[in-house]
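Dear support,

I submitted the protein below through the web form. The confirmation email said the job was done, but the results page showed an empty box. After a refresh the structure appeared. I'm attaching both so you can tell me whether what I see now is the final result or a partial one.
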Amino acid sequence: MSDFQSWASAHQLRFEDVLKNLLPQPELAPRRLHSAMRYSVLEGGKRVRPLLSFAAGELAGADLQRVDLVAAAVEMIHAYSLVHDDMPCMDDDVLRRGKPTCHVEYDEATALLVGDSLQSLAFQLLSEHTLSDDPLIQLQMVKLLAVASGSRGMAGGQAFDLDSVGKQLSVPELEFMHIHKTGALIRAAILLGVHCGNRLDTAQIAKLDHFGKCVGLAFQVVDDVLDAEADTATLGKTAGKDADNDKPTYVTLLGVTQAKKMSADLHAEAMDSLSTFGAGALRLRELADFIIIRKY
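What the results page shows now:
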């Protein structure tokens, strides 16, 4: 994994500068809002979604500067969702990425506006830069992120999550929730990276989308296991929060052993989806490995 770690570290380091340049500078008015936006996005997180965009872009021979923009848009949507999820009206958490959550560091009104502003900025990035030589494909990319972010994607998944508190869900119901809440944006990150490059055929796109579905679910299963087994210092967020709030998880439904087996099965299915892509999909395969073996 050393070569992968070097690749990932190099992209993470470079991407931090990309984000710093794309986010509003802190001296611009309104300064407090812009400062809070930067606080919520920069210097934290695994950047799994951007790394998936970069890996998919490599597979499709995409221009790196184009992938930078879609990766930034996805990361801003992700960061906005975390800011809102942590607020008292949602999950009411005080720690994220090893530091106080946005509404704790600033205030609830600012946190609300941070989420709104990051979402708007994400779509601004997709619309004001050339991301594809075909304008129709670029329009499709805007729609792709919009659907993944909205009521039929991430926001809808959060609504299911809030409604599930104290309820006994089945595994298919839990999967349905996380396909939307976690998986939709992960799938979008991959497809947006691909669309920045050479056009793939419908069957290839479908295989990459299925890969994204599998790693998205695996990501959540591993999250649930880590939430049960790891401590707050390791995770950078409050450990055991879902169990304390009586939320259904893969661990509460299946137990740790079966949850780990499920993540391994999803990993195998994800790898199978990439079987026809050869060496071009190396980084996607390595990212799937990382999602399964990560400790935070």
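Response: this is the final, complete result; the empty box was a page-load delay. The first strand starts at residue 95 and ends at 96.
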